[in-house]
Amino acid sequence: MADLAKRAEYLAGLLKGLTAFSDTLTADSGKGFADGFAALKGAGVGHTSLAAQDAENVHKNRYRNVPGENMLSALRPIQPAVRN
Length: 84
Prior knowledge:
The protein is mainly alpha-helical. Helix content is about 45%, strand content about 0%.
């Protein structure tokens, strides 16, 4: 029973901390979220899909059968599927 009380106390403290953190991020019209996402803006820029296939990076790929995004593919026109 004491173990359950400790767990409940821990979860209550965790929830209080998460609520306070969420309040910080959403204060001032969500500026905290905007600042956080701005820090991620440049992540991965300049890395081609070929970098995911390099030997030193293969073990880092979570989905080994899905290559990284190739930025040049966005520049190609979309070809409609032709059905016979």
